[in-house]
Amino acid sequence: MTVMQHRCGCGIDIHAHVIPASFPRSMKTPEPESWPSMQSAQPCHQHVMIAGKIYRTVSDRCWDVPKRISDMDEMGLRLQVVSPMPELLSYWMKASDADDLLRYINDQTAEMIAHSGGRLAGLGAIPLQDIDLAIAELRRVKLDLGFAGVEVGSNINGRPIGAPEFDPFFAAAEELGAAVFVHALRPSGMDRLIGPPQLQQVLAYPSDVGLAAASVITTNLIVRRPKLRIAFSHGGGTLGLLLPRLAEGHRVFAPLRESIKPAPAEQARQLFYDSLVYDEPALRYLVDLFGETQIMLGTDHPFNFHDRTPVDRVLATFDDQRIRQHLLADNAMRFLGLAKGASA
Amino acid sequence: MTVMQHRCGCGIDIHAHVIPASFPRSMKTPEPESWPSMQSAQPCHQHVMIAGKIYRTVSDRCWDVPKRISDMDEMGLRLQVVSPMPELLSYWMKASDADDLLRYINDQTAEMIAHSGGRLAGLGAIPLQDIDLAIAELRRVKLDLGFAGVEVGSNINGRPIGAPEFDPFFAAAEELGAAVFVHALRPSGMDRLIGPPQLQQVLAYPSDVGLAAASVITTNLIVRRPKLRIAFSHGGGTLGLLLPRLAEGHRVFAPLRESIKPAPAEQARQLFYDSLVYDEPALRYLVDLFGETQIMLGTDHPFNFHDRTPVDRVLATFDDQRIRQHLLADNAMRFLGLAKGASA
C-alpha cells in the first residue's frame, strides 16, 4: 500500500453516480410530489430536494466533470461508468412523469460523458413501473445516446428485480446487448433498524440487494437470458452469506431443487458484482465465492460514503497479477460489452 | 473427513429444537387463533397445526428423547441445548394466552431434559410481548427448571430484539446469568422472495437475524449489559457481510460514530453465533470476523433442514486443535455459563 501503484490509472469503476446540476420544473401542474429540485447549500454543494425535504446534500462532483476527472486521477481510475443517484429512478411517480424526468437526466448524463474526453461512460435510467416506456427509453439510451446500459433498482415499488413481470425488459436488454446494473433502492427491513437514518444505506441497502440477487437466481434469469450481463451493487450485498444456505436448501427441499436449475452457486457465478465492501477479507471471500471473473471496481463516488481507495484495496488484497487485472478492468470490459471478441 | 473423528462425541450443539408430543386445549373459549395442535401424519411424524393449517410436518425426534440421543451419537454430540420450534414463541398471541402455552412448553422441555441422562439442556420460551410476564417466566425457567437461558425471536412483532423496550428483559437476563439465544422468526423481506415457501427459512431468516444482530450493535447492548451472554442463530445470518459496511459507515458518518461506541466490529466480537452456515469458506470467514471464541455448533436438528455433520465440518475447516476445541465445545460452555471460572 505504500507504493502508489494506483497511479497506473488502470481502474474501471462501474458504480459511480451523477446528478444534473439543476432540474427543470415539471411540465405538469401541480408538479408531481417527488419531482426533484436543487437548493443552495455550503460552497460547492447543493441540497437535492425531494417532496419538499432535503433528500441528500451532495458535492458538485456529481455534475462537474473536470472535478470528477481530477478525483478519478487521484483514485487511479481511467474510466467511470456513471448512473443517476438511485432515488432519482422515480418508480413511485406516474410513469409518464417519471419518463419526462428520466429522459432529462439521461440527456444530462450524456452531456457530461460528451465533455469527459472518453473518461466517462453511462448507465441510463428507465421508468420500470411501465415496461413499454422503460423498453423505449432503454433503446434510446443504448442506441441514440450510446450508453453501456441501464441502472435499475433492487426492487420496483417492492417487487424484486427478479420478478417475472420484468422479463420483457430483460429480453430487450439481452437483445440490445445493454448491461444492467442493479442498485439497492427503498429497501425492505427498514422497521428492523434502530439508530440514525444513515442505517438505511448502511444496513438495509445491502440486505435488499442481496434479496434482489437471490430473486434473480430463484427465477433462473441468467438461464432464461444467457447473454444478459447483469451486475449487483455493494458486492451483491448480503448474497454472499445467503448463497451457501440457498445451496443447502436446494439440496434438501425438493420444491427448490425442481424450480432452481442449475444449482444456485452455479448461477451466482454467471452474475457480476461490484467490489464495494470496504474490506479485504470480505472482498477475498466474495472473489472465492463468485469467481475472479465476476467482480468489478465500484466506489459510490462522489457521495460521502464512497470507497476512496478502490484500486489500492484490490492491490492489497490480491497478489496474483491476473486476479488484479480481472478486478481492476477486464471484468468491467466484459460487463460493459467492450471486451475483445464480446458479442455485444 | 474420512476418519470418523466425530465419534469422539465431543460436540455441544446450542441450536436444536423441541416440540411437545401433544398440546393441551387452551383453557380459553374460543381457543386463541394460533394455539397449536398436533395431527397424525406419516409414521413417526406429526403435523403441527397452527391457525387451522399445517405449519410444519415434523419427526418424532422433536419429542422422543431416546431417538434424539441416538441421532446425537451419530452426529458426534455430547450435549444438545434444546429450544422450542420458534413459531411456538407466539408473540402475536394475547400475552396471558401465550404465557399459558409457553409455560406448558417449558415444562414439557424440562421433562425431556430430565429423561436425557444429562444429554440435553434447555433454553426456554417467554412471552416478550409483555415484559413483566416474560421476566417472570425467565426467572422460572432459570431458577426453578434449571434451564441455561431462553430463546427469543429476531424480532417481536416486527420490533428487532435490540429495540430499547426489551432492555428490562436483558437486564434481568444479565442479572440471572441466563444465556439468550436469538433465533430468526417471522422475517422482514418476505415480499422480496420469488419462489417456493421454503425461501422464507432459506433467505429471509438469515436476513432478519442479521438485521437483529445489527440492532443489538447499533444500540450498544453489550456495552450496557457487559455480562450478558447473547448468541445469534444461523451464524448471525447476514451480519458477517453487513458488519464491514457498518464499520465503514461508522468511520464516515458522525451520527453513527457518536451513537455506536465502541466500534461495531469490536462489539460484534463480544456476541456469540452458531456455526449453522453449511459451508466451510463461510464458516472460516465468520471465525476470522467474529473471533474463534465466539462461534458454537448449531444444527437445527431435528428439522429436515439441519446440519447432519456439524462436528465433521469443523474438523474439516480447521486444522488448529485450539480452534476446533473452541468451536466444538468450549465456546458453548462459556455461553451457557458452564465454563470453569464463569461468573454465572
Main features:
344 residues; alpha/beta; 8-stranded parallel beta sheet; homodimer; 3-stranded antiparallel beta sheet
Shape of chain A: globular
Distance between the termini of chain A: 36 Å
Question: Helix segment count of chain A?
Answer: 12
Biggest interface and its residues per chain?
A: A-B, 61 and 61 residues
Instruction: Give the biggest beta sheet of chain A.
Output: 8 strands, parallel
Q: Spans of chain A with pLDDT under 50 lasting ≥5 residues?
A: none
Radius of gyration of chain A equals 19 Å
- Helix-strand pattern of chain A: EEEEHEHEHEEEHEHHEHHHEHEHH
Task: Classify the helix fraction of chain A into a percent range.
Answer: 40-55%
Oligomer: homodimer
The pLDDT mean of chain A sits at 95
Number of extended strands of chain A: 13
- Strand percent estimate of chain A: 15-25%
Strand order of the largest sheet of chain A: 1-5-6-7-10-11-12-13
Strand-pairing-aware structural class of chain A: alpha/beta
